Amino acid sequence: MSSVLQLSKRFREVLLDGFWIANTNFKDQLKDVTWEQATTKVGSLNTIAMLTFHIHYYIAGLINVFEGGDLEIKDKYSFDLPPIEFQEQWVELLNQLWIDSEKFATLLEQMADSKMDEIFVDEKYGTYLRNIDGMIEHSYYHLGQIALIKKLLKDR
């Protein structure tokens, strides 16, 4: 299997449909979360909604680059979640995450394996491979946080 197909598979596993590494994924963890749960603060932790927005923010930013655009995202804006005050707003955020996650994986699959060794936007960001691997690892990190926050909310 080519490296882009392997990366695409790993990306889909953490976001959409995998159970191999973490025995869960974003879609599985978030399927039964209400907007009230998603926006409930637990101590000093980020909310589930904030973590969901944060991951989507980076996925959307990388998609823009994959489609030939500029890298327009900035870390300082990655938690700037607009207020969620209704279930429909939460569902819309989730739907955008699922749509963009599939788009990310599909665009990745269309890349040549040789693209993985190319510079991603600027040398300071490293290669495409480094950034895509980083996106997968970053997603697993926040998936773990979401799973723990859900347990803390349930125990309340």
Order of helices and strands: HHHHHH
The low-confidence runs, each spanning 5 or more residues with pLDDT under 50, are none
Query: In percent terms, what proportion of residues is strand?
Result: under 5%
- The averaged pLDDT comes out at 95
Count the domains.
1
Coarse structural class: mainly alpha
Q: Give the CATH architecture.
A: Up-down Bundle
CATH class: Mainly Alpha
General form? globular
Residues in helix, %: 55-70%
Q: What is the CATH fold-level name?
A: Four Helix Bundle (Hemerythrin (Met), subunit A)
Name the CATH superfamily classification. dinb family like domain
DSSP helical segment count: 6
The rounded distance between the terminal residues' Cα atoms is 46 Å
InterPro entries: DinB/YfiT-like
Protein name: DinB superfamily protein
Characterise the protein shown here.
The protein has 6 helices and no strands. It is mainly alpha-helical and 156 residues long. The chain has one domain: dinb family like domain (Four Helix Bundle (Hemerythrin (Met), subunit A), Up-down Bundle). The longest helix is centred in the last third of the chain and has 27 residues, at 128-154. The model has no long low-confidence stretch (mean pLDDT 95).
